[in-house]
Each structure stands twice: as structure tokens, then as C-alpha cells.
């Protein structure tokens, strides 16, 4: 196990360094003068220009600048936002809980609906239910989620007026964030109606973000289950006279879930990409919207470090999934 | 000369084998009803895209100042000249959708061609030569895959500057590692087969081995991946257009149309609904086709 972890880290560390080099070079590849871009001033005396260059450290050779940046990253200093003037890490940790809350809700929806739907579809292969699940999964998988979000807004916010259009909670409620998760904080605040308001704000974005993972998980569960149901040990279990529930639930599902775990883990990247669009549509103050806003505001330190942090998180999650995969599937030995 | 070579027995046999392979392919493909429907929808889209100027009732960018936000014809206030209504500046939605099909198909073709070409070349090199060059190529691909594709494309476009061309370049770059991995994996599994070894022994040069001997046997998974990338490219390009970084107004690209229509969603449902529906139908048709292709091409999944 330890050996496996070390070998994975041996691949991960160079990859992370590569990611940091890419993130770092992006700003330097930009057309135009970084000082002009960052200061927003159009005319500048050459001395002042040189002074700022020196202040920002841009007059040093590139490798030195990179090592300086990397050194900062390793000690938790990811640079400062040009717009807010705050450290990038501070902004990140302020906004990250919003994205985490939304993503967790989305993945819970996707798993809770997707796995049973896939299992049932496989067990009743060819039935009306199977065809519905397969068809719906294909539509969900092909869905432009930014449009799907707008449609839900038209129906539930426009026509039915059930849900708000944007934000995380009604402006009527105000409390200090404790966990950063609006659902938990609103309960802790003890204010009447706060929790309902938070749920109301969360429900549409969570559904939109869950759509693609739900479709992928349902499809994957169905095909994994179909494969397992054809195995000899399932036939043996059936022949022994075990109840269908025991055969499916105990013997088949446990093995079918192994590839599904990998699929669920791989959804982290999908969720991040989805968060960019979902948060933009619903004005959800999270990491996705932060990145889009930084791109349009040309806030380069944020783009650079945001990219690095997000890629780092995804790599970490993938590593954890790999380790989990080994734990649930003893057939894969890590030696 | 061409006819003469065609009539040799060997060429005839090869042609008949090819015909039989095509026949077998069509047999498996047509068994999948969804795939056939997807194929027909896709063919219809291609026809619409090619003949857009003949089919579209209006110019996609002409602004009818007397017809702002006219609803679709079946709704009260709708007008027969604008079947699916008009947008906030009085352009015919249907005509814009018809012209938009050109952009989506073009995006799909360009992205897949670029990603496939570079992916195959790099994958062949990595899988054939192995060693240091393989490690170098695969590390770079791992780095690209470490980013969520839409995020990386977003940042790339921010650097290159917004626009359809840059969006396509960014998406192609982000998709290419999948093709590299697939090509490399199938090259490595074919390398030790007898036919490759015998071609080597017969004195085939690396270039000939890679392109003539190995590549044709790696095609099936690449075709399936290419179909998937085709539909994903359309989705991602529309997403970039929606975020204001893809095709720029007044281009009638579907994602860009959605972005322009966003502030009117609660007042005029049609300007939002139809472009998205067009994206969904196109992507769905291609994905249906992709499922059919996988069933027909992947011998492992072929029903016995």
C-alpha cells in the first residue's frame, strides 16, 4: 500500500510541477505589458514603469521568477488579486465552501438517484423502465447545462415563482458564516425560515450541476450491473435459490459498484467545469464564477493561482479515489 | 491504368472484403434504432447547414426594426414571416438557428480533425518508440488532463483573445490527450502481434510500420472517441460562446445567441428556448450515432 502511494506520488509531483509551470507561463504569454495590464494606467513615466516592474519582481529572469512563485505556493502564498488587493488564497477559501456545498449536493443527488436507477434498469433489462432510464441518461449526457439552467429558471422562477433566480440566501437573513455551508449556517443561526430560504436557493443550481454526473453514473451503473449479472457466481447464487433481492443486492451490486466508484471520483472534474457555468447562471458566489469574473476582469494572479489550486484539488481527489479503489477491490494489488 | 489495376484478382478480392466489412458494420449499426435516428438527424443537419442561404427565410443578421421580440407564430402576436419569433433587435430566430448549424458542425469538424491528427501522431510516436520520448509525451498529456477541460479552454481563450477560432484551438488542445492515450494504448497492444513482427522482419521502415501496418488496426476506438469529441466540442464551444468568449455577436452561433438572450429570459421564452434546443438535438443525434458506432466497431461489446 505504502509502495503504491509512493509510486503514485512519484507521478503526481512532476505533474503538479508541470501544472504550476503552465499556470505560471500563462501570464507571461499574454500579449501586452503586465504592468500596464495590472495597474490599469494608460500613460506612465518610464521611471515609474521600471519601479513597478521592480516592485513586482518582473525585472528578474523568468526561471528566478518561477522559483519565487513556486516557493510562495509551497508556503501558501499564491499572490495577490489585482482587483480586490487581497491574497488569492483568502478569496479562494472565502468562496470555496459555496462551490463545495453546491458540488456535494449535486453529487449526492447524482449518486442517490443514479445508482438505483442504473441497477433497476439492468435488472429489468429491455423493460419500459430500462428504456426510460437509458433514454433520459442519454439526454442528460447531451444536455447543454447552461441552457438547462435557464429553462429551469423560466419554469420555476418565472412561471411558477417557486424559487429565487440567484444568490445563496434571501437578503432578509443575515448571520456570520460558521462552516461556510449555507444549509448548516442557516440552521445554526436559529432564524425562522432561513434554512428554507437556503434550500430554495440551492435546489435549482444543484439539479443543474447534478444532471451530467447523474446521467454518467446511471449509464455506468447499468452497464457494470449487466456485466456482473452475467457472471457465473451470480448464476450460482440464483441456482442456490437465494431471493432475487439477495442476489442483486448482496452478490451483484457489491462487485458492480467497483467501477462506479471510479466514475464518481472522475466526476470532480466534470463538477468543476459544470460549476463554472452553473454558478454564472445562478450568480452563485463560488469558485467557478470567481474564475469567470477574473477572466473578464483580467485579474491574472487570480487566474494563475486559481488554475493551480483547482488542478491540485482534482489531482488530490483522484489520488484518494485510486486508494479507495484498492481498498474496496482486493483483486487489485498495489504491489 | 486505374481500371486495369482494379480488375486484378487481388484488388477484386480486397474490394469484396471491404464490401463485406461495410455490410457487417451496417448490420450491427442498423440494429441500434437510436443510432439510425441519430444518423438521419445528423444528415438533415448537414443538409441544412450546406443549403442555409436557400432554406433560411431571412438574413441571419438583418434587424427588422418594426418586429422586436415578436413571439413564435402560434402565440398571440406572432407573425407568419417569423415562424419562431424574433430576438430583441428584430432578427429572425429561425434564420439564425439555420445559419447557426453551420458554425456548430464546423466547430465539431475542426476540433476533431486537429485533435485527432496531433493525437494520432503523438500517440504513434509514444507507443512505437517508448522510452524517454514516450514518458515526455505522456507527462505533458497528464498535465493537460489535470485541468478541467472547460476551465483550461476558458483560460486559453482569455489569453488568445475571445473568438471562434481561438475557442476551437483551445478546445482541440484540451481534447487531444484522449486521442494520444488511445492511439498509444492500441499501438502498444498491437506491437507484438505476429503481423507486425513479420512486417518488421520483412524490412518495413518505422514510418511505414506506423502508418500502414499499425494505424489501420487502431482505428475503431479512435472513431468512437472522435464522435464523442465531436459532440463535446459543440457543447464546449457553445459554453464558451455563452460565457462571451467564443464566437462574438452578431455571429449566429447557438451559444452566443443564448448569451445575448439571457437578460430577456423572463420576458421572451423563445429567444432562450430554441437555440438551446438546437444544441441539445444536435449533440443528442451525434451521441446516439456514437453509441451505434461503438456497438458496431467494438468487437468486445458485440453481442455474441
The CATH C-level class name of the domain at 92-282 in chain A: Mainly Alpha
CATH third-tier fold name of the domain at 92-282 in chain A = MetI-like fold
CATH homologous superfamily of the domain at 92-282 in chain A, by name? MetI-like
By helix and strand content of chain B, what is the structural category? mainly alpha
Please indicate the percent range of residues of chain A in DSSP E strands (runs of 2 or more). Answer: under 5%
In which range does the helix fraction of chain A lie? Answer: over 70%
Q: Please give the radius of gyration of chain A in angstroms.
A: 24 Å
Main β-sheet of chain A: number of strands, strand sense, barrel status? none
SSE string of chain A? HHHHHHHHHHHHH
Helix content of chain B: over 70%
Say how many strands of chain A there are.
0
Strand content of chain B: under 5%
Question: What would you say this structure looks like, in words?
Answer:
The complex is a heterodimer of chains A (335) and B (304). Chain A has 335 residues and is mostly helical. Chain A has a domain at 92-282: MetI-like (MetI-like fold, Orthogonal Bundle), CATH 1.10.3720. Chain A is built from 13 helices and no strands. In chain A, helix 5 crosses helix 9, helix 9 packs across helix 11 and helix 12 runs antiparallel to helix 13. Chain A is globular and about 85 Å long. Chain A starts with a helix and ends in a 7-residue tail after the last helix. With 304 residues, chain B is mainly alpha-helical. Chain B has a single domain (26-57, 68-301), classed as MetI-like (MetI-like fold, Orthogonal Bundle). Chain B has helices at residues 2-6, 9-31, 33-50, 52-55, 93-129, 131-145, 149-160, 164-190, 194-201, 206-214, 219-242, 254-261, 269-297. In chain B, helix 5 packs antiparallel against helix 6 (131-145) and helix 7 (149-160) packs across helix 8. The two termini of chain B are 43 Å apart. Chains A and B meet through helix 1, helix 6, helix 7, helix 11 and helix 12 of A and helix 6, helix 7, helix 11 and helix 13 of B.
Amino acid at each position: 500500500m505504502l509502495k503504491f502511494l509512493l509510486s503514485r506520488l512519484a507521478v503526481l509531483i512532476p505533474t503538479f510541477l508541470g501544472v504550476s509551470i503552465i499556470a505560471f507561463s500563462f501570464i507571461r504569454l499574454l500579449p501586452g505589458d503586465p504592468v500596464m495590464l495590472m495597474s490599469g494606467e494608460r500613460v506612465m513615466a518610464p521611471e515609474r514603469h521600471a519601479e513597478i516592474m521592480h516592485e513586482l519582481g518582473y525585472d528578474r529572469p523568468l526561471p528566478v521568477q518561477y522559483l519565487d512563485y513556486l516557493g510562495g505556493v509551497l508556503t501558501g502564498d499564491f499572490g495577490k488579486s489585482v482587483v480586490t488587493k487581497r491574497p488569492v488564497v483568502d478569496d479562494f477559501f472565502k468562496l470555496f465552501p459555496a462551490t463545495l456545498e453546491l458540488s456535494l449536493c449535486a453529487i449526492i443527488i447524482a449518486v442517490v438517484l443514479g445508482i438505483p436507477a442504473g441497477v433497476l434498469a439492468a435488472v429489468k433489462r429491455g423493460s419500459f423502465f430500462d428504456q426510460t432510464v437509458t433514454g433520459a441518461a442519454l439526454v442528460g449526457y447531451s444536455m447543454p447545462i447552461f441552457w438547462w439552467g435557464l429553462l429551469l429558471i423560466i419554469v420555476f422562477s418565472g412561471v411558477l415563482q417557486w424559487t429565487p433566480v440567484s444568490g445563496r440566501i434571501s437578503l432578509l437573513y443575515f448571520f456570520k458564516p460558521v462552516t461556510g455551508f449555507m444549509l448548516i449556517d442557516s440552521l445554526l443561526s436559529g432564524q425562522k425560515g432561513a434554512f428554507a430560504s437556503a434550500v430554495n436557493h440551492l435546489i435549482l443550481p444543484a439539479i443543474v450541476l447534478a444532471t451530467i454526473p447523474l446521467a454518467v453514473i446511471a449509464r455506468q451503473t447499468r452497464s457494470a450491473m449487466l456485466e456482473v449479472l452475467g457472471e457465473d457466481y451470480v448464476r450460482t447464487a440464483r441456482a442456490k435459490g437465494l431471493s432475487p433481492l439477495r442476489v442483486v443486492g448482496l452478490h451483484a451490486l457489491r462487485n458492480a459498484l467497483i467501477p462506479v466508484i471510479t466514475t464518481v471520483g472522475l466526476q470532480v472534474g466534470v463538477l468543476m467545469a459544470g460549476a463554472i457555468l452553473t454558478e454564472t447562471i445562478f450568480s452563485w458566489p463560488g469558485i467557478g464564477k470567481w474564475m469567470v469574473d477574473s477572466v473578464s476582469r483580467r485579474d491574472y494572479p487570480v487566474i494563475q493561482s486559481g488554475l493551480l489550486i483547482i488542478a491540485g484539488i482534482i489531482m488530490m481527489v483522484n489520488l484518494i479515489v485510486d486508494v479507495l479503489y484498492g481498498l474496496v477491490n482486493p483483486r487489485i494489488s498495489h504491489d | 491504368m486505374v481500371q486495369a489495376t482494379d480488375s486484378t484478382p487481388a484488388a477484386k478480392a480486397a474490394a469484396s472484403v471491404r464490401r463485406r466489412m461495410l455490410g457487417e458494420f451496417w448490420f450491427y449499426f442498423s440494429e441500434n434504432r437510436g443510432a439510425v435516428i441519430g444518423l438521419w438527424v445528423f444528415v438533415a443537419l448537414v443538409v441544412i447547414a450546406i443549403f442555409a442561404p436557400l432554406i433560411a427565410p431571412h438574413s441571419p443578421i438583418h434587424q427588422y426594426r418594426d418586429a422586436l421580440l415578436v413571439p413564435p407564430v402560434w402565440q398571440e402576436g406572432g407573425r407568419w414571416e417569423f415562424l419562431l419569433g424574433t430576438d430583441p433587435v428584430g432578427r429572425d430566430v429561425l434564420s439564425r438557428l439555420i445559419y447557426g448549424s453551420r458554425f456548430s458542425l464546423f466547430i465539431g469538424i475542426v476540433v476533431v480533425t486537429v485533435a485527432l491528427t496531433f493525437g494520432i501522431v503523438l500517440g504513434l510516436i509514444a507507443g512505437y518508440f517508448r522510452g524517454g520520448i514516450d514518458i515526455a509525451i505522456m507527462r505533458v498529456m497528464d498535465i493537460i488532463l489535470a485541468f478541467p477541460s472547460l476551465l483550461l479552454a476558458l483560460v486559453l481563450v482569455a489569453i488568445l483573445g475571445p473568438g471562434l477560432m481561438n475557442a476551437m484551438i483551445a478546445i482541440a488542445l484540451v481534447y487531444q490527450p484522449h486521442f494520444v492515450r488511445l492511439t498509444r494504448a492500441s499501438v502498444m497492444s498491437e506491437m507484438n502481434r505476429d503481423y507486425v513482427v513479420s512486417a518488421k522482419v520483412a524490412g518495413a521502415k518505422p514510418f511505414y510500420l506506423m502508418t500502414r501496418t499499425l494505424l489501420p488496426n487502431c482505428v475503431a476506438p479512435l472513431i468512437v472517441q472522435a464522435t464523442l469529441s465531436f459532440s463535446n466540442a459543440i457543447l464546449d464551444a457553445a459554453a464558451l460562446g455563452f460565457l462571451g468568449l467564443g464566437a462574438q455577436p452578431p455571429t449566429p452561433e447557438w451559444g452566443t445567441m443564448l448569451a445575448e438572450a439571457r437578460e430577456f429570459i423572463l420576458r421572451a421564452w423563445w429567444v432562450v428556448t430554441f437555440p438551446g434546443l438546437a444544441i441539445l438535438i444536435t449533440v443528442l443525434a451525434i451521441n446516439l450515432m456514437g453509441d451505434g458506432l461503438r456497438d458496431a466497431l467494438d468487437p468486445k461489446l458485440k453481442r455474441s
